[in-house]
Design goal:
Chain B: Keywords: Electron transport, Heme, Iron, Membrane, Metal-binding, Respiratory chain, Transmembrane, Transmembrane helix, Transport. Chain B: InterPro entries: Cyt_b/b6_C, Cyt_b/b6_C_sf, Cyt_b/b6_N, Cytb/b6-like_sf, Cytochrome_b, Cytochrome_b_C_euk/bac, Cytochrome_b_N_euk/bac, Di-haem_cyt_TM. Chain B: Belongs to the cytochrome b family. The complex is a heterodimer. Chain A is an alpha+beta fold. In chain A, a hairpin with a 2-residue loop joins strand 2 and strand 3. Chain A folds into 2 domains: 48 residues; 131 residues, Rieske [2Fe-2S] iron-sulphur domain (Rieske Iron-sulfur Protein), CATH 2.102.10. The radius of gyration of chain A is 29 Å and the shape is elongated. A 4-stranded antiparallel β-sheet of chain A has the order 5-6-7-8, with no helix packed on it. Chain A is 29% helix and 21% strand. Chain B has 2 domains: 262 residues, Cytochrome Bc1 Complex, Chain C, CATH 1.20.810; 106 residues, plastocyanin oxidoreductase (Helix Hairpins, Orthogonal Bundle). Chain B has 18 helices and 2 strands. In chain B, strands 1-2 form a two-stranded antiparallel sheet. Classes of the chains: A alpha+beta, B mainly alpha. Chains A and B meet through loops of A and helix 7, helix 8 and helix 13 of B.
């Protein structure tokens, strides 16, 4: 290639010239160097981005926790933390269970039957994450039109199954992973 | 602009230095000899006031960091330590906290002034967009700074605002976890906000340098919106005229600032933030700081989570396109009778949104917020483009000198002066 052309400021003309000719060894080296350089930049950038993800200590704090249900009276809502996230354990009354079960599922914004939100044979125990699915505030228990929860921030209303009924929250309160160890003990996580 | 330096170094040392780095020549041409329109009013002092506030926030912030502990278990008590134990700590913290509010008061006046006098129009588009970038950086800085005392409002403000990103489909949840460094707002979140809160003001300072540079390339706008045609008649040197006027404006502004700091230091804050952060309880009524309220009202006005977030960010993004949305060739509202009215309606709408942002999201407040949100966007996307086509502007003066003399001379004298002044421009 013409060295003078390379030295000139008119790179566009130079590139056009190369495009019409057979690829040269120089073209190959140019692209290969650029590609390796881009991979290198990405490889160095990744640690700087990934350092912000949950660290080993935070993840380790996600070890399962066992909860003794026996002291929780009927009608009571207990708050606890797992992985730094708030969880509600609600001991539902017969009336609250009935209200949750008799709803026409198709009419719900996020359709889900009550049976899908509790464990078989443990319908009196509702275990849900305690942060509103709108913007993360903590809803207040036993309030709102459905006696479930009412979020004080932006007015989302949840029923006694933790399902969204009114307001800006897009989904039901999610269910954390948990299992019954026996009738009065659950393990979350 | 004919602002090239007339600076001549006198001493041999200065000559030696200037020939190697023409720093004093640059300062002289930018802040001494720089031609300033002779008709600038006090609204033009807010650029200088904002520069002062940025420096004030950085200085008070740096000394506060000498006593603050960025840890979830200690941050709240370290702020109380600053308030009670540190020498003049109460003063430094109140200066910094109220300084943020003063910074936003000044920037909103500065922005509305730019809108009223059409300061965003060609050739000042880049200048305006740099200003929007500074505004965004200011909002990010203020938000993260408010989290640092780790009170209830800090914690729940951080939770609500970071959760905005969870509205994004698919990538939303991983992004929020990444922002938090965990599964909820916690110590890692506080640490990174502290780091970024320290960094962003210096990024603002960098963009401010570009903003001032762009300003000095295209020159200042002025109340007539007419460019400087004859520097000898239309302009005065920056020093002493603008420097003294800016200094006086700044002193008046500082009187207001001092009144807040010394008499009502907590008036603009929330009592809830004097309660330590508690992830199990949300305060009954959470609201952001006053300067975010209009945008918060827009967020809450939309019943859909994702659309609410998009509307809120769009309300700021639309400012970037303002230079092209306003189709009128006339810059200043002084000569635009219809725009002038719509401008004040827009100001009222912004204030109204601010009021609604502080009210609970129920009943009539939600309906009002929807109406005002719709108007906010209609102003930019419908009214401004159409006004430029249908409005008949009043005659614009031939030069700044004409406008000044017509205003301050007597009737006949002004007519003569106008004829005399406008004659050369016809040649």
């Amino acid at each position: 290639m013409d060295i003078k052309a390379l030295g000139s400021k008119d790179w566009g003309a130079n590139v056009a010239e190369i495009a019409t000719a057979e690829p040269t060894r120089r073209d190959f080296l140019f692209i290969a160097t650029g590609a390796v350089g881009a991979v290198g930049v990405a490889a160095v950038a990744w640690p700087f981005i990934n350092q912000m993800n949950p660290d080993a200590q935070t993840i380790a704090a996600g070890a399962p926790v066992e909860v003794d249900l026996s002291p929780i009276a009927e009608g009571q809502i207990v708050k606890l933390f797992w992985r730094g996230k708030l969880i509600f354990v609600r001991h539902r009354t017969k009336k609250e269970i009935e209200e949750a079960e008799k709803v026409d599922v198709a009419s719900l914004p996020d359709p889900q039957p009550d049976s899908a939100r509790v464990k078989d044979g443990h319908a009196q125990w509702l275990v849900v994450y305690g942060n509103c699915t709108h913007l993360g505030c903590v809803p207040l228990g036993n309030q709102g039109a459905y006696d479930g929860w009412l979020c004080p921030c932006h007015g989302s209303v949840f029923d006694t199954s933790g399902r969204i009924r009114q307001g800006p929250a897009p989904t039901n309160l999610p269910i954390p992973p948990y299992a019954f160890l026996n009738d009065s003990k659950i393990r979350i996580g | 602009m004919s602002g090239h330096s007339t600076y001549v170094p006198k001493s041999p040392v200065m000559k030696w230095f200037e020939s190697r780095l023409p720093l004093f020549g640059l300062i002289h041409s930018s802040f001494v000899a720089y031609p300033t329109p002779r008709n600038l009013n006090y609204l033009w002092t807010f650029g200088g006031i904002l520069s002062f506030m940025l420096v004030a926030q950085i200085v008070t912030g740096i000394v506060l960091v000498m006593h603050y502990t960025p840890h979830a278990t200690m941050a709240f008590s370290s702020v109380e330590h600053i308030m009670r134990d540190v020498n003049y700590g109460w003063l430094l913290r109140y200066l910094h906290a109220n300084g943020a509010s003063m910074f936003f008061i000044a920037v909103y006046i500065h922005m509305f002034r730019g809108m009223y006098y059409g300061s965003y129009k060609a050739p000042r588009e880049v200048l305006w967009i740099l200003g929007v970038i500074i505004f965004l950086l200011m909002m990010a800085t203020a938000f993260m700074g408010y989290v640092l005392p780790w009170g209830q409002m800090s914690f729940w403000g951080a939770t609500v605002i970071t959760n905005l990103f969870s509205a994004l489909p698919i990538v939303g949840e991983p992004i929020v976890t990444w922002l938090w460094g965990g599964y909820s707002v916690d110590n890692p979140t506080l640490n990174r906000f502290f780091s970024l809160h320290y960094l962003l003001p210096f990024m603002i300072a960098g963009v401010v340098a570009l903003h001032v540079w762009a300003l000095h390339v295209v020159g200042q706008n002025n109340p007539t919106g007419v460019d400087i045609k004859n520097p000898a008649k239309d302009a005065v040197p920056f020093t002493p005229y603008a420097t003294v006027k800016d200094a006086f404006g700044l002193v008046c502004f500082l009187v207001v600032f001092a009144w807040f700091v010394f008499y009502v230091p907590n008036y603009l804050g929330h009592a809830d933030n004097y309660t330590e952060a508690n992830p199990a309880v949300t305060p009954a009524h959470i609201v952001p700081e006053w300067y975010f309220l209009p945008f918060y009202a827009i967020l809450r006005a939309i019943p859909n989570k994702l659309m609410g977030v998009i509307a809120m960010f769009s309300s700021i993004a639309v400012l970037v396109f303002l230079p092209w949305l306003d189709t009128s060739k006339v810059r200043s509202a002084v000569y635009r009778p219809l725009f002038k009215q719509f401008f004040w309606v827009f100001v009222a709408v912004c204030v109204g949104l601010g009021y609604l942002g502080a009210m609970p999201p129920e009943g009539g407040y939600v309906i009002a917020a929807r109406v005002l949100t719709a108007y906010y966007f209609i102003h930019f996307l419908v009214i401004l483009p159409l006004l430029g086509l249908f409005e008949t502007p009043r005659p614009v003066p031939a030069s700044i000198a004409d406008a000044v003399l017509a205003k301050h001379g007597g009737g006949a004298a002004a007519a003569v002066a106008m004829g005399a002044a406008s004659a050369p421009s016809k040649k």
